[in-house]
Design a protein that fits this description.
The chain has 231 residues and is of the alpha/beta class. It is 48% helix and 16% strand. The chain is built from eleven helices and six strands. The chain has a six-stranded mixed β-sheet. Helix 9 links the parallel strand 5 and strand 6. Helix 1 runs antiparallel to helix 2 and helix 6 packs parallel to helix 8.
Length: 231
Amino acid sequence: MNQLLLDLEKQIEVFKSQNLDTTELEKSLVSLRAQIKSQRTPWDRVLLARDPNRPNGIDYINTMFNDFIEFHGDRYYGDDGAVVGGIAMLYQMPITVIAIVKGKTVDENITRNFGMVHPEGYRKALRLMKQAEKFNRPILTLIDTPGAYPGIGAEERGQAFAIAENIMEMVDLKVPTLSIILGEGAVVVLWHSRLPMRFGCLKMRFTPSYLPKVLRPFYLKMPLRRKKSLA
């Protein structure tokens, strides 16, 4: 169905380039989009939120801001490719931008760790937020992550403490903070929604308090009455 939609859009563009009437085709396109939307399931929304071809945090930064200067490292251990942050200009006003970024190719995803943040990524984000507070700059965070990285190395470097420290420090930030979910929100939303900040999200996103594939084996073993209560 989606391929049919793309083919129809291309056909309309070709006809327009030839100065042909595309009124009926455009009506069919609107009708087809409405049909696809009405048939979209919750899992379709999950797949759309995870689509690697969607714009990621870097795309938004390059489109929205001028003169973005990226900062690296947490000054303790190293840099985390999953977190991109720095200073940008928005209408001649300097702001701090922090984005959790997924890659669009295999190599990019390896560099970005599939958008899963290490402790050094959380510490880098906190360093940038405290710097923004010091110089009275607003903070924008762009979220697209399946969750914090659950590896042994991350736990050894203090993953839980890094997350807890971020929450504790963000509660006391004295500058305006806006947080936007671009795709996956995962458990980040649970603690972001409790902080004193502005919070928003794009239409095609999902914000679970658990990972669907992790929960599925447990869900299949539940009694039928329990499944109905969760539906």
